[in-house]
Structure formats: structure tokens, C-alpha cells
Amino acid sequence: MLKINDIYKNLRTNIPKNILSGNSKIIVGFSGGPDSRLLIDFLCRSIQNPEKNIIATHVNYKLREKDSQKDEDLVTDICKKENIKLEKFIHPLKNETKGIQEKARIIRLNIFNELSIKYKTNKIFLGHNYNDHIETIFLNIIRGTGLKGLEGIKSNKKINFENNLLLIYRPLINLKKQFITETCIREKLEFRIDLSNKKNNYSRNKLRNEIIPQIEKINPKFLDSLNSLSKITKKRNNKKKVRFGKYKGLEIKEVIKILFSEYKYFKPDTFLGRNHYEMLENILLEETFSENLPGKIRIYRKNDELFFQDLSIKKNIKQINKKILIPGKTILREDCQIITRLINKPKNIKQINKKSIYINRKYYDENLFIRIRNNGDRINSIRNIYTRVKKVLSNSKNIKNKKDVLILESNNEILWIVGIKQSISSYAERNDDKVLEIKFLENPV
Length: 445
Hints:
By secondary structure, the protein is of the alpha+beta class. The protein has helices at residues 4-12, 17-20, 34-46, 50-53, 66-82, 100-119, 130-143, 177-186, 203-218, 222-239, 252-266, 274-284, 311-318, 361-364, 389-394; strands spanning 26-29, 54-60, 85-90, 123-125, 156-161, 164-169, 290-293, 297-302, 305-310, 321-323, 328-333, 336-344, 356-359, 368-372, 378-382, 385-388, 406-410, 413-417, 421-422, 434-442.
């Protein structure tokens, strides 16, 4: 068996130099089990000035009554002996099987995020091991997964949580559970065993305690076989590239990062997980053309481009059918409004952008209404020629929701496809003694 110094020497090769040199603080998840115990010992022996640069973190979920408290007490004693800072949290969870592991994971992420801000570091170290990695792959297969799920747990990972980028490091990911436990015993590193892991209340425990041991009777190297599949999948996934639109030629994983960021514009506080990653991957691999993401956000592909649609807003838009105040402000909904003003004896009128127009007296003396476009709408695009609005929109780029485009009309004649095109018959002329300026404002302050 390798000596502890040789084990730690190998582990250090995957740790950034600025961490080893003590130039960056780190946050370490410390449950008190053998994995996190070995991780703490490794980091304390490897990082310069560990008392200043290591922040251990322990969460007590109160799931095992006295045993949970004993875990916390051991963690406290070890941190005192090692002279490292410890942040303790109590988050009682009801002792139920459904969703409890996911709830605990979200609690930990929130804690890591808070500590990241408090200590001004985004580097998080966790004690996941080789067995955890294989079990995750197997669980993903059982639940149904794409190629991404076959990668399992990554040794390094970036997580964008509440607009804070967390860097996750898992130095022990290539060490098997039994090896870690035996090393802790040999090195007299005190740890505690979570006896609830012996109960098959959770899918992972059942897999670990019953299913995998049975498979290993058929193939003793089953864990290594599944890990080989994981490596092959990672290589394949890293080579996959987008074959359409503006992202053509880029690696799929890079485009997914971009799409995650664009999604955050709509839902900054919503977390996207593995299944959502696979939804985006399916679109980029051209296996689907639309997917529904959390928060009623839909991503869809049209004409080789990708668009996001906020389905929660769509219903409000369809209700718009309002008379425009002249002059004055007309609020269409919370995020947009129309402002009009009369200009006497206009000079050098120029249309600065597509969000404003000037129309002649023939139309502003009549009632003006704004509504959602209808099938069959036509606009006077060339003198005495009316073009279908649908055709105008098809020739316009960067319009996310063409069905929800607003129309300004007077006496059933379309004067403006808002933000896109004005009818030629409504143009203000040079010799007009008065014109009406109409502005469309989105997200006004």
C-alpha cells in the first residue's frame, strides 16, 4: 500500500498552485466521515498557512438525533486540533425519504455561496470519491439520461449559483471508498460512520448496498468498466460541436454555458441542473426543437437560431387592445408603454431608431389603437401596395416572438408594426404644419 506522503503527492498534482502556496482561501465541506476526514488532513498538510486559508464547513441536519450531534462534536474537535476555522450550520430536515437528499444539496450550495461572499473566495473542496462517481453514473442510467449523465461526477466543476461562480474541486474522486477508509484507520485519522447509509431508504443506498454487490459477483471489475465508459463519453462530449446558426462550429458545452447565462437574464435566481443541461444539449444536437425550462421559460429553435420565450408574459400580451392617448402616455403593461406628443411646424424630423415614428394629421386626428397582430394583417409597404405583415416579419432578424408583435392601427389600417416597420401612407411630410411623434418604450425607468 502507498505511503501517505506518496498518496498526497499524487493528489497535489491536480490542485492549483495559488491554492497550495496559500495565496487563496478555500472552503471545505467537512461531514466527519472518512472521505472528508482524509480531505481535511490532505489539505492541512499540503497548503501553506492552513490556519489562515482553510475554512471547514459542517451542516447538521438533525436527521440522526444524537449521532448527528456526535458528528458535529468530532468535526469541532478536529478543527481545533488542526487550528483551522470552522463554520457550523444547523438546518433541521424532516426525516422523510422523498427529495431529502436534493433539499440537503440545495442547503449546502446556499451555504457555500454565503461563505464564498463572506471570505471572498469561490473555491470549494468536497470529498466525493470513486464509488460516488460510479454510483452517480448508474443512477443516471436507471433514471434515464443522455450522454452528459454518463460522465458522472467531475473532479473540477464550475457552478453559477445566484450570479456567483463557484469552483468545485474533488481531489479524492479517483480514490475508492475502501481505500480511503483503510488509509484513515492506518493513519489514525478519527472519523464517524453514518449508519443511515446502511439503510436502503434512498435509491443510492439501495444501489450501493444491494445492486452493485450483486453485479460485482458477475463482473468483479464492474466499477472500473463503468468508469471506462465515463471516460469515453467525456472524450466524445468534448468533441461535439454545434452545426447550425450563429454558434456553428463551437463546442456544445461552451454554447450551453452561453445559453445558461442568457436564461439567467429571465430567471436570475433559478438553478438549472443536469436534466436542464440535457434539454439544451438535445436542441443543440438537433434532437428536439424546443424545451420548457423552469420558471415558464421556453427555448426553441427557428430558422437555425435559438430564442427564449417567457410564457408567463405571453398571456398578458395577448390581452393588449388599447386606445392611444394623444398627447400622453399609454401603459400597455408593466414593462412597456407608448408616449405621444404633437409637434407644431416640425423641422428636420429624423427617425432616430425603430422605436419611434412620426405620422401625419390624416391619421392622428382619428382614433389610434394598439393590439397584437392577427393572421392576415397587411401593411402599406410600397405606394398602393399592401404586404402581409407575416412576410415583413419573416424578413426581419432578431425577433424572438413574432406572434406577439404589436400593431398600431387607425380605422382598421395598420400604421406601424411596432419597432419594425411604418406604413408609407402614414409618413409625416416636410410641409406638414403638425405631426404626431409616437415612442414605444420597453422597461422604462
